[in-house]
Amino acid sequence: MQKTYYDPADLRKFGSITEWSEELGNKFFEYYGKVFEEGALSAREKSLIALAVSHVVHCPYCIDAYTKDGLQRGITKEEMMEAVHAGAAIQSGATLVHGVQMMNKYNKLSM
Amino acid sequence: MATKSLLARKDDLANTETQLEYLSNGIFANGELPTFKDKIAETGNFPLKPRKLEILQINLGYMCNQVCSHCHVDAGPDRKEIMTRETMQQCLEVIKKTGAHTLDLTGGAPEMNPDFRWFVEEASKAGIKDFIVRSNLTIIRANKKYYDLPEFFKKHNVHVVSSMPYYKREKTDKQRGDGVFDKSIKALQMLNDVGYGKEGSSLRLDLVYNPSGAYLPSDQEALERDFKEALKEDFNIDFHNLFAITNLPISRFLEYLIASENYEDYMYALVEAYNPAAVENVMCTNTISISWDGWLYDCDFNQMLGLKVASKVKHISEYNEDLLQNRNIIISQHCYGCTAGAGSSCQGTVA
């Protein structure tokens, strides 16, 4: 058993999750593959969205995977970093918008 | 970025046997990944046999004006291996008789061979359908004596295939050296000026893209679209097609993979992207590669690994197409580079 929670080599083994729950695993990977095909959004656009979300959900495997995917698609580092900022802005916005709740509560409790 | 070949640096990897050992040990020896032989045997493709011969690829020498970090030839200014006129004569005899429809000259920078122009003039008389010269573009701007190459290519109706790793300066120069991008752009404009690459023009100008790092090329058509838009908008450059080529894990690209600790991940990526459909059309099944000193190989990559054809006929001086067609193609783990995804060949994707 490894001594750290994350091992980059584990990403290669992602497919093995189907071994312990075949039907659900297969359904997930089929769905996952379908999501990233060309559609109303281009595969390139979806790759950038995936990269931004990877950062927001703090998934190191996903960050590795979608940085590489972006390189393969010819996505520039400037585009990648802007996508990360888009994710970060929503995440910090999501924190800050709760400030309104705090203000509401403060005002309600104050005379 | 290296400024000398592996050979000049006396690097261990300059020894092709060291490279082949590397490709057979580790993750392939311990069974983590299947060998290429086992993989193609799954679909009954072992031993790999030639189909109809279509392409004669002749390497005019390993000398080059550039020292690209991904070069599978380990080419550079310090490489002195150059095809002699005598070997060229032997090639011409073969070109006159071959059933192949395409002649493909490569290097190094083939233009640096002192007999290059003589050979092109003679070979163009043989009436071959598609006559390709692989030009690195910067050679056209490297010295005044090369400035007229676009006119020379035009005169002999040569199909120019040029490497252009990216449509932006940074990635191009990082892979190929400072100033390569600007020189390449200028050379492409010179080719356009004499009529190459224009829509409907019979003067064919195709570009070769290969990734600047440890990742695979994506969809060739999408990349071609991006290249066309960017080169037209930024530099008013036209070209016909883009070939997306996968970097094979040999020579200086192998050196890079090992040094950057990307080797295992890269091999995993190649094996995961293995496409049986690409095996059917893999380049070595329709090509014979001839080295500067006249030896025969299944492809340019096997040439660089020193893997001569497994046939009684091994040299241009004893060339016999019928005998060669009966050979088994020599494979190793580098072959995964040609069967990943949509496949990869000197003519781009194959599946």
TrEMBL record, chain A:
Pfam families on file: CMD (PF02627)
Domain Carboxymuconolactone decarboxylase-like: 23-101
InterPro entries assigned: AhpD-like, AhpD_core, AlkhydPrxdase/COmuclacdeCOase, CMD-like
Single GO MF descriptor: peroxiredoxin activity
Highest taxon above the source species: Bacteria
Protein name: 4-carboxymuconolactone decarboxylase
Organism: Leptobacterium flavescens
TrEMBL record, chain B:
UniProt keyword Iron-sulfur, yes or no: yes
A single MF term (Gene Ontology): iron-sulfur cluster binding
Record domain Arsenosugar biosynthesis radical SAM protein ArsS-like C-terminal: where: 216-349
Highest rank taxon of the organism: Bacteria
Pfam family name, one: Radical_SAM
Residue ranges occupied by any Radical SAM core domain in the UniProt entry: 58-198
Listed CDD domains: Radical_SAM (cd01335)
Cofactor(s) named in the record: [4Fe-4S] cluster
Bilayer-spanning residue ranges: none
NCBIfam families documented for this protein: rSAM_SeCys
Protein name as catalogued: Radical SAM/Cys-rich domain protein
Species this protein is from: Leptobacterium flavescens
